[in-house]
Amino acid sequence: MNLKTTLLGLLLTVLSFSTFAQDVPAPTDWQRENTSEYIAFVGEKWDLSESQKTELYDLRLDVMTHVAHYKKLAKDGDLTPQESKAKIQNHSKKINKEISELTGKDWKQINKINQEFWKHIESK
Q: Which of 64, 68, 69, 83 has the fewest CB atoms within 10 Å around its CB?
């Protein structure tokens, strides 16, 4: 491969990712409210600074919008259910890694707090 081919391939890859990312719709009011509840819930359990809470809010909202987007693509037939599930898992792993780096919590602690949060929501 020559340099031009490599650069063209890289450019096309970057453009395809940026175009796909733009397709993710803005968060809904429900997603924003749920994310705010999540931050309040986690804030009671974990010792987080205000800047950590702000960043955690952004990360959580990002996951919620992407999950909804991938599910819609599967519903519309643009992705298979397996492709949708794989994209959700990959994106969630990426964000959970960022949450771990932000909070110092490992993936087990993150999953546990997520499960506790959903139980809390369901009990309302």
A: 83
